[in-house]
């Protein structure tokens, strides 16, 4: 099979995008395809696969598959790339439009000329804080804010936020000491999170900046995570480390994202989206 693709990234969080407005893929191939294209030796090399598809409830739809072939429900960096692609490729004519995800619909606005969209703002909607909707085990209606969390003998405290996908946020005094590789994969698969979880370590720099590192469910350490950056700002605000309504600069390994948790409850994300290669992937399953 010859599959036309575009490789794009948001701050180094890279995905192989297949445009299902122009090409079709069978449902039972998607998980294998995600694993194959993501492999840097046998495929193209990426953090996963994103499908851009026609939607009945929005102008365009997005599905995200992680590197291990599991399907996620949302992807902040992917959304900015989908918005750039949809506008540049003339799937959409207006600069502001809705995108369907399995974690809910969002609204994106592209900035720049059709030939070159360099920034995208996304209204990511309201964070979900009830434990059962993260989902996380325990008293279902309660919020998980600075809750004691013991793992591998380490006593930590967790704040859990869903941005359509689950995030467990941990604050550290110094990012260099964050146990990203040691505890990231263990927490991500811990049974307290029945669907797994994206794991973020956050260091507060000042009232307007956070340092951020992530272990993504299904993909491992990545350069950036857009939904994770949103969850981090929500978690920092809930822990009284930040004020609502202020744009916060989140410093990720691959660059900066600008996140606002507005007092009407909605989370806004602004940042870059970039295209690196387009081509054809030859795949024999
Ligand atoms: N990189 C993404 C999130 C991708 C999905 C995630 N690994 C999950 O399984 O929930 C982002 O930018 O938000």
UniProtKB/TrEMBL annotation:
<keyword id="KW-0028">Amino-acid biosynthesis</keyword>
<keyword id="KW-0413">Isomerase</keyword>
<dbReference type="GO" id="GO:0005829">
    <property type="term" value="C:cytosol"/>
</dbReference>
<feature type="binding site">
    <location>
        <begin position="216"/>
        <end position="217"/>
    </location>
    <ligand>
        <name>substrate</name>
    </ligand>
</feature>
<feature type="active site" description="Proton donor">
    <location>
        <position position="75"/>
    </location>
</feature>
<comment type="subunit">
    <text>Homodimer.</text>
</comment>
<feature type="binding site">
    <location>
        <begin position="76"/>
        <end position="77"/>
    </location>
    <ligand>
        <name>substrate</name>
    </ligand>
</feature>
<protein>
    <recommendedName>
        <fullName>Diaminopimelate epimerase</fullName>
        <ecNumber>5.1.1.7</ecNumber>
    </recommendedName>
</protein>
<feature type="active site" description="Proton acceptor">
    <location>
        <position position="225"/>
    </location>
</feature>
<dbReference type="Pfam" id="PF01678">
    <property type="entry name" value="DAP_epimerase"/>
</dbReference>
<dbReference type="InterPro" id="IPR001653">
    <property type="entry name" value="DAP_epimerase_DapF"/>
</dbReference>
<dbReference type="InterPro" id="IPR018510">
    <property type="entry name" value="DAP_epimerase_AS"/>
</dbReference>
<dbReference type="GO" id="GO:0008837">
    <property type="term" value="F:diaminopimelate epimerase activity"/>
</dbReference>
<feature type="binding site">
    <location>
        <position position="13"/>
    </location>
    <ligand>
        <name>substrate</name>
    </ligand>
</feature>
<feature type="binding site">
    <location>
        <position position="198"/>
    </location>
    <ligand>
        <name>substrate</name>
    </ligand>
</feature>
<comment type="pathway">
    <text>Amino-acid biosynthesis; L-lysine biosynthesis via DAP pathway; DL-2,6-diaminopimelate from LL-2,6-diaminopimelate: step 1/1.</text>
</comment>
<comment type="similarity">
    <text>Belongs to the diaminopimelate epimerase family.</text>
</comment>
<feature type="binding site">
    <location>
        <position position="66"/>
    </location>
    <ligand>
        <name>substrate</name>
    </ligand>
</feature>
<comment type="function">
    <text>Catalyzes the stereoinversion of LL-2,6-diaminopimelate (L,L-DAP) to meso-diaminopimelate (meso-DAP), a precursor of L-lysine and an essential component of the bacterial peptidoglycan.</text>
</comment>
<feature type="binding site">
    <location>
        <begin position="226"/>
        <end position="227"/>
    </location>
    <ligand>
        <name>substrate</name>
    </ligand>
</feature>
<feature type="binding site">
    <location>
        <position position="165"/>
    </location>
    <ligand>
        <name>substrate</name>
    </ligand>
</feature>
<feature type="site" description="Could be important to modulate the pK values of the two catalytic cysteine residues">
    <location>
        <position position="167"/>
    </location>
</feature>
<dbReference type="GO" id="GO:0009089">
    <property type="term" value="P:lysine biosynthetic process via diaminopimelate"/>
</dbReference>
<keyword id="KW-0963">Cytoplasm</keyword>
<keyword id="KW-0457">Lysine biosynthesis</keyword>
<feature type="site" description="Could be important to modulate the pK values of the two catalytic cysteine residues">
    <location>
        <position position="216"/>
    </location>
</feature>
<feature type="active site">
    <location>
        <position position="75"/>
    </location>
</feature>
